[in-house]
Amino acid sequence: MYEYSLNAYMTVFINALDTAKKDNVLQARLKFITDKLTQLVYEFTCMGIFERHKLMFSFQMTTMIMEGDNTLNKPELDFFLKGNTSLDEIENKPFKWMSNNGWKDAVKLDQMGGVWDGFLDAVKKNEKVWKDWYDLEAPEMSPMPCGYGKSLDKFQALLVCRVFRNDRCINAIKSFIMDKMSDIYVKSPPIDYEKIYKQSTEKTPIIFILSPGADPQNEVQRLVESHGPGMQKFKFLALGQGMGDQAKEFIESGAIRGWWVMLQNCHLLTSWLKTLEATIEGLNKPDKGFRLWLTTNPIDPTAPIKFPLGILQRSLKVVTEPPDGLNANIKQAYSKLNDEILNECPKPEYKSLVYVLSFFHSTIQERKKFGKIGWNVLYDFNDSDFRISLSLISLYLNKAMETNEEELPWATLRYLIGEAMYGGRVTDDYDRRVLNTYLKEFMGDFIFDTNQKFFFSKSDFNYVIPSEAENKEQIELEIEKIPLFTNPGVFGLHSNAEIQYFSNAVKELWSNTLMM
Fold first, then answer.
1. Which CATH number is associated with domain 326-483?
2. Which fold does the domain 193-320 belong to in CATH?
3. Does the global pTM surpass 0.85?
4. What does the radius of gyration of the chain's CA atoms come to, in whole angstroms?
5. Which candidate among 127, 145, 164, 512 keeps its CA 20 to 30 Å from the CA of 136?
6. Considering Cα of 370, then 376, then 378, then 384, what sign does the dihedral take?
7. CA 163 to chain CA centroid, nearest Å
8. Residue 288 in 3-state DSSP?
């Protein structure tokens, strides 16, 4: 479903011209436009691609920019993506601790010449220092032995990472992109519905590509009340067999009257999508207020009936999927909130509990990427769980305030959130125990103890509640301080828990980049 038209990118380009910093010096102005355009293209593309492909896109974009600047060593890039593809026999590896593929790659690296001359000898003669570096929890963050830490740049360091610890290549790639570009390009931009609305037009359908459990209808309804024609002029329809004629009627009448129309589950009526494409193309001068919102599950590219190319190319695509990283997940949770929601309960503990719930929600989302180590069964925790749990906290805190109760109803909140809301999805007893353990660790009077400061975790960073932040903007500044690289210890896991996840992720990145 990754189809974009030139017109879509022209819109991004014009937006970059309008929003880039002005300067009377031509070269400075061009630099500002280039930087702004790069950022906007990244944000625009990330909005419509899946989380597992965002780092690959960022890496591809970085290497293409380097190629344009004549700073990319193509043989080194080729080696990083493919490794040693030779079928020739090589000498036996001298150390048991190195993998067979790692030793084979080291032989190839030594043959590449230049800065790599003598690499193999340096490894053979200094086994202990290389073994110590290899055994580090995050070797990519420490200087490489034998002076290679100083002689190699960030990109060349990726090649050494591939040789010794390919499970650390994902974080090494992020460090490389941050060094060459900015940390913006390793962060998942949160879904901003107001920005989506501003980018849309009456001729641009908005397609939500859904992940399990996601439902953007509530956010669209909130948007129709604040920026659109109001709920009375918002028509939505769940597609199914025989619903095509009614959907067509909604679109045609909505285009004339300036309604907002939402067609849900387009993947269930793929046979009608060609008619939908013809209907959209046949709209003659639709009202400026008209918006067409579509939701669909990802459609298999090998399926006999595909999503029409004409709709995909002209549309604004939005993937509704939890972002990667604790920082991004908490930020995503707060992107759905505003100061009015944060102040709807006058009890002073409320804002802190909103943050606690956001941290809890992000933690259980992040555990998914560790596979069976994270959860025995993969659960579709989503924004509705977060939203209703937040309403429950507000309800019970307001009730406690009305009845002048000094102690908050912690047991009730933990039960409703851990057993009814999030726990309602959990089928495995051990998973339920993990879920409830988090709530026991995160919810209680102890989080407000002035004598002993509360920490969610002290693993590589002090994860605390930003209790002094008074509004959303200040809270988001505190969220920005959370490290991009989250140690599994934050989730109560051993550091080895991420080895399998990172190993699979980098193999997928190499494979997908080569296929592009």
1. 1.10.8.720
2. Rossmann fold (3.40.50)
3. yes
4. 26
5. 512
6. negative
7. 28
8. coil
